[in-house]
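Components:
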Amino acid sequence: MSGGVLEGVRVVDLTSVVVGPVATMNLGDHGADVIKVESPDGDLLRRLGGMSRCGQLSPKFLHMNRNKRSIALDLKRPRARQALERLIASADICVSNMREAAMERLGLGRDALEAAYPRLIHCRLVGFGDGGRYAARPAYDGIIQGMGGMTAIFEEADGRPRFVPMTIADHVVGLVAVQQILYQLYRRERTGKGGTLSVPMFENLAAFVMSEHMGQLTFEPKRGEPGDRRVLDPGTQPIPTKDGYICISANTDHQAHALFRAIGRPELCEDPRFATVQARYANVSQYFSLRNAALGERTTQEWLDILGAADVPAGPSHSLMSLLDDPHLSDVSLFELREHPYEGMIRNIALPGRAADLARSDYLPPPLLGEHGREILSDAGLRPEEIDAMVAARELVTPEHGLS
Amino acid sequence: MSGGVLEGVRVVDLTSVVVGPVATMNLGDHGADVIKVESPDGDLLRRLGGMSRCGQLSPKFLHMNRNKRSIALDLKRPRARQALERLIASADICVSNMREAAMERLGLGRDALEAAYPRLIHCRLVGFGDGGRYAARPAYDGIIQGMGGMTAIFEEADGRPRFVPMTIADHVVGLVAVQQILYQLYRRERTGKGGTLSVPMFENLAAFVMSEHMGQLTFEPKRGEPGDRRVLDPGTQPIPTKDGYICISANTDHQAHALFRAIGRPELCEDPRFATVQARYANVSQYFSLRNAALGERTTQEWLDILGAADVPAGPSHSLMSLLDDPHLSDVSLFELREHPYEGMIRNIALPGRAADLARSDYLPPPLLGEHGREILSDAGLRPEEIDAMVAARELVTPEHGLS
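Structure:
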C-alpha cells in the first residue's frame, strides 16, 4: 500500500541511465509499483557518476531509482524472456528506451504489444521521432543538447557553444515522458484503451529551446534574427558583488526604477534609454553594464538587504554546497536523511510541494541489482523451484550472485 | 470540438509571462478549453521578447499562447470580479501565479476556492513552497536559476556562475505543473475530488539540479565533493572541428574504443588510463584533451561520416538557424507554417510525437488581448447588454478598444 495517487498502477521499466529512470521514479514517487528490469550487468548508472560504498549505488543512481524494485534478467535466455512477458502481462504501463529492433527481438515490438495488451500504455523513449530520417539513431544527452539548440544559445550569447553541465535533455524529456503517460492514463480511465506513445528527445528539446528563442524567425518571411536578445545578452549573468554573486530580476518599470534608486542613480528613472521596458530592451547592454558596475561596491548580503527593503527581486547565486544548507529548503525538508540498507545514511531529495497528497507515503530505498527478482517472479506465479533453477542458471541474477 | 484527450476540460488561466503560460498551453494543446484571463494591460510577454507586427504578439508570446482564448478583465472592478467568479464556477482547473494575498483580495484564496468548488483543481505556481521562510517572496526565473543550483553548476565547471540563456526554470517548472495537474485530474476521475496543488519553483529546480549533482554530499557524513566530475569537467563541451563543432557521446567501452580507432589511436583501447568506464572517469581531463586534439584535423561533416560508419554516437552543434533547417525536423514537420490573422504567416512549433492522438486536432492562433472576452462572457450566461456595459466601462477590455 504505497498510498500515492498511482497506487495499484504497475510499471515495467525497461530503461536505464537517466531519461527513463527519472520518468519511472516520478511514477513510483506517486505510488506506482515500478519494476526496474535490468541486464545481468545492471544499469550503467550504478557505476557512473561517482563512487558508492557498496560499489553499485552511485549518487546519481540513488537519486533516480528510489521507489522501484529491481529484477535482473538475462533476456538472451528463453526462460528470462518468458518471465518478462509475464510481468508485462500484469502491467499497466511499460516504459522502454531500447531501439525498436532490440524490442522486436524480445517479442516486444510496438505492434506485438498493442495486439496482445490493448490496455497497456507503452511509452517508447526515442532519440528521434518516427517518420524522420534519424529515427533509427541512438540518442545521448550531449548529442541532443548539441542538435536541439541548447548549445546554440550559448554560442549566440558567448560566441562559443557550451553544454549545460548536466544531462538536461534527459531530465527535460523525462518530465515530458511522465506527462505523456499521464495524458494516456487519463484517457484509458475514460475509454479503457491503452496505446503506444513515442517521446522523441530531439524534437522535444528543440521545441523547448525554440519556443523561447525562435525570435524573428517565427515570421515567414523572416523579419530578422533568432533569439530573445535580452536573455541572450552576455550581461545576463549573476552579477559580481564585493564578495560573491547576486541575481536580480527587475523587469517591470516599477522594479527597474526601484533598482535605480537603490544603486544611487535615481536620474535613470527619467532617462529615455532606461525608463520603460521597451527602452531597456533596446539598450540592454548599456543597462546591464551600468547596473553591474554599481553592484560591485557592496557584499551580496548588503545588497540583499537593500534590495529586499526596496522590493526589488533578488537572490544569491548559491554554490552546490550552500544550496544544501539553504534555510528555506531546510524548513520544507527538501533534503531528508534516510537510512539505506547498503549505503548507510543518505540524503534523499523529497518530492517538492506535497500538499495535495499525491505522493506515496512509504519509501523504497534504491535497490541493489536484482534485489527483488525472487519476490517479483514469485508474485508473478513462478514456483520456488522454477525460480531456483533460473538463479542457478544465472537467467535471474540476484544479490546471491555477489556484488560485482 | 478540439479532439484532444482533454476535450471537455476547462481551464481558467490566471498566469502570465512564461511558467504558467507554457503549462496551460500544454493543456490546451491536448484539447482543454483554456481561458486566458489578462489584465487590461495584458500579459507582459505580449511586448517582451521581440517585436511583432501588430505590437502585442511578440514571438515568445506566440509560442506560449496558442490554443487559448483571451479575456481581459479589470479585476479591481466588482462586475469584472463577478464575471471571473462565473468562469471559475464552470472550470475544472484553475492555474494561478499571483501571490496568495492578491488571490485573497479577489476572493480566490485557496480556502475559499476549496470550499466553494470541491471538484476544482487549483494549481498555484509559487516561487517558494508553503512552510518555508521565503514562502511570500515573488519568483523570477533568474533568481530561481541562481538559488536553485543552475548557476552553481557553471561555477563548478568554469569557475564563474552563469545563467542558462533561456528562462529554463520557468520552462522546467511549467512541465512539473502540467504533471501535477494531470496526477490530480487522474485522481479526480476516480474520486470526484479536486484540490489545491502548490508547485514551488525553487524546490523543483533545486531537486532537478541536485538529483544529478549532489554527488558525495549524498552521503551522511559527506564522503567528498558535490558534482558529477565527468559532466562538470571543463572539457565536456562541443568539440571544435576544422570548420565548426561536433558533439560526441562515447560512454561505453565499445563506443570509446571505436572512437580511439576512428581518430587513429587504437593503442588507447589497451591503455589502463582509458580502457574502461571507470578509468576514463578517473582520467577524464586527459581523455577529453587527447580526443579534442584529434578532432580539429577534419571538418564536422567528415567526422560525422567517419564516426557514423564506426557506430560512435555523434551529431553537429546546431545554430538556431541551422536547427530550423534540420532535415529530420522537416520530415516530422516540427516547425509548421500557420496563417495568423494579425501577424501573417508564422512558424508554429508542433507538439512532438503525435502518434497516440493525444493532441487536439484544431489550432487556435495566439489571441489578441481580450479577443474572446465577449464570447466567453456570453457563454457564461451574461446578457448582451450586460457585456456592452462592461465594455463601455472598460471593465471588459476587447480589441474594440484599439491595439495599444
